[in-house]
Structures are given as C-alpha cells and as structure tokens.
Amino acid sequence: MSQDSESQALGKVVQINDARIQDHLGELVRGTVEETLNAMLDAEADAMCGAQRYERSPDRVDTRAGHYERSFHSKAGEVKLKMPKLRKQTFETAIIERYKRRETSIEEALMEMYLAGVSVRRVEDITEALWGTRVSSGTVSKLNKKVYKHIETWRNRPI
Questions:
Q1: How many other β-carbons are positioned within 10 Å of the β-carbon of residue 19?
Q2: Segments of the chain assigned E as strands
Q3: How far is residue 106's CA from residue 54's CA, in Å, rounded to a whole number?
Q4: What is the C-alpha to C-alpha distance for residues 139 and 107, in angstroms, rounded to an integer?
C-alpha cells in the first residue's frame, strides 16, 4: 500500500464535526450561565434571609419557601432560572429586573436590526438562528415604540 492511499484511509477514520463541537460548546456556555445566575439568586436570597439555606442562626430574618422557575433569554440561549421565594418578604433581585424576560443587549440588537431596515419577519428568523428562540413580531413592535418615543423627544427638544 502506498503512502498516499494510507493517508487517505487514515483521513477517513478521524472526522471532526464542527457543528457538533459548536453545539456542545454552546450548551456548555448556556449551562454555565444558568448555573451562575441561579447561584447568584441563591446568594441574594441568603443575604435577605440573614442565613444560608437550612442554617440555624439567631440573626435569621426570614426563611425560604421554595422557588419557581422562569425562563430568561440571554446571549448564550434560553436559561431556566430558579427564583427563590421567601415566607415573610417578597424576593426582589438586583440581578434581573422584575418581569424582564430577555437580556438588555438582546433588546438593543432587536431595535438596531429593525431601525437598520430589517423586516420584522427577518428579525424573527435572525433571533431564532442566533439565540435559539423566536421573538414575536409584537415584541419587536413594542420595543420599537419605546425607541420612537425617545427619537420624537429628541427631535422636538428645544435647540
């Protein structure tokens, strides 16, 4: 067997699938983001309670009452957050605004795409390709109404 045919045979044995590697790395990043955000939420709940989960302490102000799940769209993809619940007080986090469903940078990207002349349908397709979730046309319209208010205020300001 010649050296060329031998290298061709070996070349077929080892194949690198770039798409699978990218998917695996993307899932690894998404999982890390989810784990980090959930750890930060737990730490915030511990600080509000005055003690860690299951810790007996005279300084304890409140106790945990479980959690509820909510989805959050980040650049890394959709993550499931475990929002802590407290018995005596309402848990309000400084990490994520209440009722916020997607990262601010994603909202800014959506507005920039639309203002650059990209159609709403194309914006939907782009968001699905980039972040794995489809943003509705209504969401794009609501975000653009916010922008147009600021533009009108700026245009009508006294010079």
A1: 7
A2: 64-74, 77-86
A3: 37
A4: 9
Distance, C-alpha 18 to centroid of its chain: 24
The residue among 5, 89, 109, 99 whose CA lies nearest residue 48 is 89
Q: Kindly state the tokens that stand for 154.
A: 């700026």
Closest CA to 99 of 113, 83, 110: 83
Q: Which of the two residues, 20 and 8, has the higher pLDDT score?
A: 20
pTM of the predicted structure, to 2 decimals: 0.58
Can you read off the two tokens belonging to residue 49? Answer: 């309670």
String of b and e for 130-147 (b: at least 16 CB within 10 Å)?
A: ebeeebeeebbeebbeeb
User: Domain coordinates of the chain in residue numbers?
Assistant: 1-98, 102-159
